[in-house]
Design goal:
alpha/beta, TIM Barrel, two-stranded antiparallel sheet, 16 helices, globular, 37% helix, S-adenosyl-L-methionine, single chain, iron
C-alpha cells in the first residue's frame, strides 16, 4: 500500500487518480478534470465509460507513474500554475487528503474508488460563446463548417454532437453508500456536472431527483445564467452543499458579443436571483467565473468594478485563462500595456507572437461580427491595434 506521507511533498505525486475521474462531452474519459492531453486519450478504449476507465489497467499504470515521480504531459496545467505561484488542483487535493484522519487517508489509497465524479453529459447548450467550440455547445456545429472553409480548424469540429452519456448508468445512492461506508470521517460524496449548459439538460434534473441521499451529496456546476431553473433550485436546497459558478465573461454589450445570443438585461435579473438564493441558504455558494481571452482582456477592469459595485467587494470572481483555440489565447499575441495584470499570469506572455494565430484571430473576429446580430465593439478595434504591430 502507498505511503502517503512519504509522497505528499513530491512535486509530481497527486492523489487524484485514486479518488476521481472525469467524462468529457465528446465521450473521452480522463483521470482528472484538468487533464490536458486530449490528443492522446489515456482511456481510448473506455469512451463514455468512466467507471470502467477508473478500474482499468491504465489507471493502475498512471498511479505507479505518479508514485515514481514521473511527470505526465496531461498534468501540465497544474505544473505551470505551481511554477508561477498559483495554487493548483493537485495542491488543493493534497490539502484535503492531508486534513483527513489517518484511517481515512489509509482507506483512500488502500481502497481506490470514485469519491469525486465529474460529468459533461452532453454539449447541449443555449449559447454559442466565442471562446467555446462544438465540444461545449451543439449550436457551434454549422459555424464550425463555415469557419473550416475560411481555413480556421477548431478543436472538436468532427465530434458526434448527437451522442450523450446515459445517466441511467449512474446510481448516486450506491456511490454515496460505497464512499461513506469506508470510513466514519467521510460524510458526503461530490459530483460536478458541466456541459453544454447543465441547467437545460433534463438528464441533470433526473439524476438528482433519483438520489434519495440528497443530504449526503455535494454538487458543483457552471451556468451561463440565461435561465433560472426553478425545479433544479428546489433540489439544490435539499443537498448537503451546492457550488454554482456563474459563467460571465463580459458586461452589457460585451456579454452578447462574447456569449451570443445572450440578453444582458434578462441575464442580470437571473444573476440577482442566484445571489439572493445564496444569501437565503447557507448550503448554496455562488461565485463568478470569467474566461480570460484576447476578446475581453481590456474589459476586465470594468467587469470587476461593475460586479463588486453591484454585489459587494466580498464576492468571489475566478479568472481562468483560455488555452484553446490558440488564436483567442493571449499567450500568442504581443504584450500590451494593460491594467488587468493582477488577473493575468506572467507565464501567458512567455510564448512568442504567432503570425498564423494573429491572422486566424482576425478571420474569426470578422466572421462572428458579420454572421451574428452583434455590433463590433469599437474599443476592441482600438486596443487591438497595439497587438498587431
Amino acid at each position: 500500500m502507498i505511503n502517503y506521507d512519504k509522497h505528499k511533498n513530491n512535486k509530481v505525486f497527486c492523489p487524484v487518480p485514486w479518488v476521481h475521474v472525469a467524462l468529457r462531452s465528446d465521450g473521452n474519459v480522463t483521470p482528472c478534470c484538468k487533464w490536458n492531453n486530449t490528443d492522446q486519450p489515456i482511456y481510448k478504449d473506455y469512451t463514455y465509460d468512466p467507471f470502467g476507465a477508473f478500474n482499468s489497467k491504465h489507471t493502475l499504470a498512471f498511479r505507479e507513474q505518479l508514485e515514481k515521480g514521473i511527470k505526465s504531459i496531461g498534468c501540465n496545467q497544474c505544473y505551470v500554475n505551481e511554477e508561477v505561484g498559483k495554487e493548483s488542483l493537485r495542491q488543493r487535493i493534497i490539502k484535503k487528503v492531508s486534513s483527513q484522519t489517518p484511517s481515512a487517508k489509509e482507506q483512500i489509497f488502500a481502497s481506490p474508488q470514485i469519491r469525486f465524479l465529474e460529468l459533461n453529459i452532453s454539449n447541449f447548450c443555449n449559447l454559442k460563446c466565442a471562446s467555446c467550440d462544438v465540444h461545449q455547445s451543439n449550436l457551434w456545429e454549422k459555424d464550425e463548417i463555415e469557419l473550416s472553409k475560411l481555413g480556421i480548424l477548431r478543436p472538436g469540429s468532427n465530434i458526434n454532437t448527437l451522442k450523450k452519456f446515459n445517466t441511467k448508468d449512474i446510481n448516486l445512492d450506491k456511490l454515496i453508500e460505497n464512499h461513506l461506508s469506508t470510513d466514519p470521517s467521510f460524510t458526503f460524496f461530490s459530483i460536478k456536472i458541466l456541459g453544454g449548459e447543465s441547467s437545460i439538460q433534463p438528464e441533470v434534473l433526473t439524476l438528482l431527483e433519483s438520489c434519495s441521499k440528497k443530504d449526503k451529496l455535494q454538487f458543483q456546476t457552471n451556468t451561463n445564467a440565461v435561465i433560472f431553473p426553478k425545479k433544479l433550485i428546489q433540489i439544490f436546497k435539499k443537498l448537503n452543499k451546492v457550488d454554482i459558478s456563474l459563467s460571465i465573461d463580459g458586461i452589457e454589450d460585451y456579454d452578447r458579443y462574447l456569449r451570443y445570443p445572450s440578453n444582458w438585461k434578462s441575464k442580470l435579473e437571473n444573476i440577482k436571483k442566484y445571489m439572493e438564493l445564496a444569501s437565503m441558504y447557507d448550503n448554496i455558494n455562488i461565485k463568478f467565473h470569467c474566461t480570460v481571452s484576447i476578446l475581453n482582456i481590456f474589459h476586465l477592469e470594468y467587469y470587476d468594478s461593475f460586479l463588486k459595485k453591484l454585489f459587494g467587494e466580498n464576492i468571489v470572481i475566478f479568472y481562468s485563462l483560455l488555452q484553446r483555440p490558440e488564436y483567442l489565447s493571449i499567450a500568442y499575441h504581443k504584450k500590451v500595456d494593460i491594467q488587468a495584470e493582477e488577473y493575468v499570469l506572467n507565464y501567458m506572455y512567455s510564448k512568442q507572437p504567432n503570425k498564423q494565430y494573429i491572422n486566424n484571430f482576425k478571420i474569426f473576429k470578422n466572421y462572428i461580427e458579420n454572421t451574428r446580430d452583434i455590433k463590433p465593439l469599437e474599443e476592441l478595434d482600438l486596443r487591438y491595434a497595439g497587438m498587431f504591430d
